[in-house]
Amino acid sequence: MKRWLKLVPLLILLLLTLIYKNDIATFLVQKIVYSKEIYLDNQNDYSLNYHFEYVQATNDFIANDKQELLNILYTFLNNGEENFYFYCDYNECLNDVDYLIDSNKMTNLNNYVHPYNIYRKAIITSNSFNKIEVTVEKSYSDDIIAAINKKIDEIMKEILNDNMTDREKIIAIHNYIVETTTYDTEYLEANLEDIDNPSHKAIGPLYYHKALCGGYTDTMALFLNKLKIPNYRISSESHIWNYVYLDNNWYHVDLTWDDPVTNDGSELVLDKFLLITTEQLESYHTGYHNYDKSIYIEAK
Asked: Which of 116, 138, 160 is the last residue in one of the domains?
């Protein structure tokens, strides 16, 4: 009898294990194999500390809704992470992740991070325990970053001084880039789709003196970040430009449209798209500046 009494607890434990085996397995996997205690590595040198309405930095890497999902992705990208993971904890999370990738909406997050932290390619996988793993390939290599930083430091010493206001510095940078850069019509005429072409990046204006809208915009963003002037990039379906916080207001800056292509190839510097309001921008009816105001909220 005593022997049977000793076996009862073991039998009960075995029965409970059989009944709740799936829950127990899930608990063990989440707590031991896949720990949900996630910590960020140290921010890299290009992490920004600006405040935006669309996305915010977070220390909670378990997404409970779509906004938290966006915040997590933004935080990792802003910190310069190339490999990271997090967890979903709401029913539609995996669908939201797929939508961000398939619709190319995730690339909007690039516009809120430093150009050196933007990605050109992302691979996202998930498992049955709602663990999301992300690997990104950066757009700028270390060698290119070093070359660009050197050139930017040289230019800033040449065209800026401590007595200038932020507005004067922005104007000086705008004029320098437009004066020394030509819109890369050869690229467009060749109907190329090479995303690694220098004209798409800051290396184009600074070293080859040619650019497409991405090259103009990244270059301006690099100068603004160097000066610690809050900014992000706004993109439409076919264009991208800068959005800058100055004197307690936000303004559009579009260097591409201030550097028009002339028939004789001469350089023409305009300021029509320099530090203008959304109302002014929309009054021009260019057809290239129609953007999603649910994403670029400050620019409503």
From this structure: 138
Residues 270 and 290 in one domain: yes
pLDDT digits (tens), the chain, 300 positions: 555 555 556 555 555 555 655 555 454 445 544 556 676 777 899 999 999 999 999 999 999 999 999 999 999 999 999 999 999 999 999 899 988 888 888 999 999 999 999 999 999 988 878 899 999 999 999 999 999 999 999 999 999 999 999 999 999 999 999 999 999 999 877 777 787 899 999 999 999 999 999 999 999 999 999 999 999 999 999 999 999 999 999 999 999 999 987 655 556 778 999 999 999 999 999 999 999 999 999 999
- Classify residue 210 as left (phi > 0), alpha (psi -120 to 50) or beta: beta
pTM of the shown model: 0.87
- Cα–Cα distance for residue pair 6/2, rounded to 1 Å: 6
User: How many CA atoms lie less than 13 Å away from 295 in the CB half-sphere?
Assistant: 18
Would strands 131-138 and 83-88 be described as parallel, antiparallel, or unpaired? antiparallel
Look up residue 10 and give its two tokens: 């073991």
Q: Whole-angstrom Cα distance, residue 292 to residue 300?
A: 9
Q: Answer whether 44's CB lies under 8 Å from 77's CB.
A: no
Q: What gap in Å lies between CA 112 and CA 92, rounded to an integer? A: 25
Give the total number of structural domains in the chain. 2
Q: What gap in Å lies between CA 17 and CA 276, rounded to an integer?
A: 67
Residue ending a domain, choose from 102, 119, 138: 138
- Among candidate residues 37, 132, 117, the one with its CA nearest the CA of residue 81: 117
155 Cβ neighbours under 8 A, 6+ residues apart: 176, 206
**Does residue 190 contact residue 160 with C-beta atoms inside 8 Å?**
no
Which residue reads 């809208």 in tokens? 213
Do 219 and 149 contact (CB within 8 A), yes or no? no
The residue range of the domain holding 276 is 142-299
The residues near 12 (Cβ < 8 Å, ≥ 6 apart) are none
